[in-house]
Amino acid sequence: MFYTVGEAAKRLGVAPSTLRYYDKEGLLPFVERTNGGIRMFKQSDFEGLRLIECLKKTGMPIKDIKRFMDLCSVGDESISERLEMIDRQRERVLEQIEQLKENLQILDYKHWYYETAKAAGTCAVHDSLSAQDVPSDLRAARENLEGGVQERAKGS
Amino acid sequence: MFYTVGEAAKRLGVAPSTLRYYDKEGLLPFVERTNGGIRMFKQSDFEGLRLIECLKKTGMPIKDIKRFMDLCSVGDESISERLEMIDRQRERVLEQIEQLKENLQILDYKHWYYETAKAAGTCAVHDSLSAQDVPSDLRAARENLEGGVQERAKGS
DNA sequence: TTACTACTTAAAGTTAACTTTAAGTCAATA
DNA sequence: TATTGACTTAAAGTTAACTTTAAGTAGTAA
Predict the structure, then answer these.
(1) Is residue B99 part of a domain?
(2) Residue A84: inside a domain, yes or no?
(3) pTM here?
(4) Domain assignment of residue A13, given as a range
(5) Which of A23, A47, A156, B20 is the most exposed place for a label (fewest CB within 10 A)?
């Protein structure tokens, strides 16, 4: 029912040194030790580790994750603050997704750009193309990419 | 019609040292200089910079961005390879979005968890709750978070 | 011509998040 | 009891992406 640091690391797909580092940074106050000082990860510890993974993957720095874990340790009096941290992180994730979607549009435009150039054998094919030659769902991204400041004279 | 490094940095919302660093790393081969050696950013340079921003924000390392810029410099013979790089990056972005959405679900569950705990004044309220007490759209996230390995005896 | 501000480079410094190393300990097996 | 492999800590090393510093140059305004 218990895992050593190596077994826990394998189960989580991280290096043992990573778990020791997290422990040293105070992210794993819930992990107990044997008399000999060896860490014993129990089933329920993996729930905390899964949350840490979630916070890390959504860009929360180690220090802030430690803050959250400290709040968990003090008990019920910190519920409101924990809720606030979760809500702030949720909003950051929504922003990240929006940002990625916007950048995805630019990559979609570039995909079309190079597909078209590849078919023509040269990027110069785009010199004679205007907005209506660009697939409608990519026009906004093209504007975004090119700054939309000035219109290039076509066919000149 | 030209920008110094400081003006370009301001327009892009980055530090001048960042643009100098990018230039040193070979990301800005298109930026020209005055006789005196001062960088002159022209309108069209901002298109390249916008693409660099896109690649950076989607997690591409500086080295790979340099690779892409080098490909741009060689001309039409590198179109296919540039297309491949764009396509690979597109897929990474789709993966990132999926990952973020999954982690968002966990945060949504935690939001509900702490809202409920806050209302009850204690996290212990969750000890007496079972799967059907969890909003249906959050059950999957709860399973994900708790590993779903074992069912806790209720009310014991 | 003298200030003055922003520019230049090279090199060193910073930060986050690990990873590696060194020296030693624990626990199970031959 | 001795060996083996995984564990322990502290401290140093790594990497990416900048930022800062130092020493000097460019270009403009008085």
Answers:
(1) yes
(2) no
(3) 0.92
(4) 2-74
(5) A156
Q: What is the CATH number of the domain that holds B31?
A: 1.10.1660.10
Q: Which nucleotides of chain D have an atom under 7 angstroms from any protein CB? A: 6-10, 16-21, 25-27
A48, A74, A100 - which closes a domain: A74
Digit-coded pLDDT (tens) for B83-122? 999 999 999 999 999 999 999 999 999 999 999 999 999 9
Q: Note whether A107 contacts B: Cβ–Cβ < 8 A.
A: yes
Give residue for tokens 């960088």: B39
Cβ of residue B37 lies below 7 Å from strand C: yes
- Do A103 and A63 fall into the same domain? no
Among B107, B108, B104, B84, smallest CA distance to B96 is for B104
| Residue A20 burial by Cβ neighbours in a 10 Å radius (0-12, 13-18, 19+) | middle
Number of structural domains chain B divides into: 2
Separation between Cα atoms, residue A68 and residue A86, nearest integer Å: 9
> Which residues of chain A between 106 and 145 are close to nucleic strand C, CB under 7 A?
none
- Roughly what angle, to the nearest 10 degrees, separates helices B79-120 and A45-57? 130
Same domain, B98 and B144: yes
Instruction: State which amino acid sits at residue B124.
Output: A
Q: How far is B72 from chain A (nearest CA, A)?
A: 10
Say yes or no for a CB contact (<8 Å) between B79 and A104. Answer: no
Which residue of chain A comes nearest to B94, CA vs CA? A104
Please give the structure tokens belonging to residue A65.
């994750």
Give the whole-angstrom CA distance, residue A51 versus residue A75: 17
Token pair recorded at residue A5:
């640091």
Tokens of A85: 């941290």
Which bases along strand C come within 7 Å of a protein CB atom?
Answer: 6-10, 16-21, 25-27
Instruction: Report residues of chain B scoring pLDDT below 70.
Output: 148-156
Residues B22 and B55 in one domain: yes
Quick check: is A86 in a domain?
A: no
